[in-house]
Amino acid sequence: xxxxxxxxxxxxESYRNIIAANEGNAxxxxxxxxxxxxxxxxxxxxxxxxxxxxxxxxxxxxxxxxGIPMLLIIGWRGEPGIPDEPQHVKQGEVTIPLLETMGxxxxxxxxxxxxxxxxxxDYMAKYSSPVALVVKKGAFAPYPFEKQKDDLxxxxxNALEVxxxxxxxDDLVVATTGKTAREIFELRVKRGEGHENDFLTVGxxxxxxxxxxxxxxxxxxxxxxxxxxxxxxxxxxxxATAADLADTNFKYILNNNGAHESVGGQPTIARKLDxxxxxxxxxxxxxxxxxxxxxxxxxxxxxxxxxxxxxxxxTRQGSRKDLGRPTESPQQNKVAxxxxxxxxxx
Length: 346
Known about the structure:
Blueprint: H1 2-11, H2 23-37, E1 41-46, H3 50-61, E2 70-76, H4 86-102, E3 106-108, H5 114-127, E4 131-136, H6 156-166, E5 172-175, H7 179-190, E6 198-200, H8 208-217, E7 223-228, H9 229-234, H10 237-245, E8 250-256, E9 259-260, E10 266-267, H11 275-282, E11 286-290, H12 293-303, E12 309-314, H13 330-345
Parallel strand pairs: 1-2, 2-4, 3-4, 5-6, 5-7, 7-8, 8-12, 11-12
Antiparallel strand pairs: 9-10
Helix pairs in contact: 2-3, 6-7, 6-12
């Protein structure tokens, strides 16, 4: 789906190709567009996002409720029999059964796709209901995504290395899904360290702050939540809860590179926002910003003993072409972290 997303971003105006905060929002946008124009909207997302779209698909668009037709274009990660990452395996197994349970008819995209599109259009017209095109991994031809260019000094990985160099050795880290978690894993290897201080979230985009808050509530250790701008936008309301309940040991770090880089580089609106004011409005009392290594070190030094503190990192897009993936399973990561917390508490 990365190639499909890149092609759309390159060829369609922003008002016709909206990068929604989450998949449920995309369903709402398509529904509203249909209500005002009578034209069908299309919502495209990876199958991991189907879970976020279940509620509005069933309680809004379903033919037994409002009956709002729309085309769902769903990338099929974790297709049974096709090797993929741990977070995609279960999603891949249940993608087709979930669509069937929801009563959403589907076609698996083929090279001869025009008759399939005609079938989808006919179904939406006849039944006033959502219909899905399921897209296998690699179905689209390669299409390079032109990344945003800026002159910021640090990449995300540069900033993460400064963070790990600055925080205490027994502090805990909760990293958002995608390249952030992958880079932290490899940085730990580079430093000759284990991974028992980290929770490397491999899925559940948008829920990093909630995981970190729950972790911080069960330990006296400092917990550094390292989030991304896409995740931040996806479930921003969770940060109001975090700021309200957080003790001194919860520290929020937001990496803002203005893009969903882990899934292709589609732009977010984060660079257009006054994130400092948003975080303060959500309840954080001390919010720092940093673009350089020295600024990160100074901010973290001040944050270490401050309650309700947050740091906004402004970084440029880009990651190593040889960036690997964690060689430990999610279960191994969980067990090592829990054992480490119990041992240090006893």
